[in-house]
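sanity check this record:
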Amino acid sequence: MQNTEKMVEIRDQLNRIGHEAFITEFHYAFIGKSNEEKDNIKKEQRGGEIDTIREFWNLMQGADAVLVLNLDKRGIKNYIGANTLMEIGFAHVLLQKIFFYNPIPDMPYCKEELEAVHPIIINGDLSLIK
């Protein structure tokens, strides 16, 4: 959720080119916030009644594909976090196409798993999503 504004931008671009793209309703709380504020919101959500993992699972039902917006974060090029890794696993099990905005990151703890789901790397070119 650190890149919420970019997520909204990409969602809107996808919708303009004919896709039915969506993101979680949780994104509203993150718009316009600093990275520190976003981290605090995530901590509050984890400790409260919000179950983001199930929310993403429910949103994914019936979808054809998932686009992973793997941008640089915490000094890691094309970063993919633990929650996103879980969502990629959900998409794989649901037989959905998996698109990565950028190439697979060089993250030793998950690189092999990311390669195993055979993502389609679009290198920022949304027209490649079909």
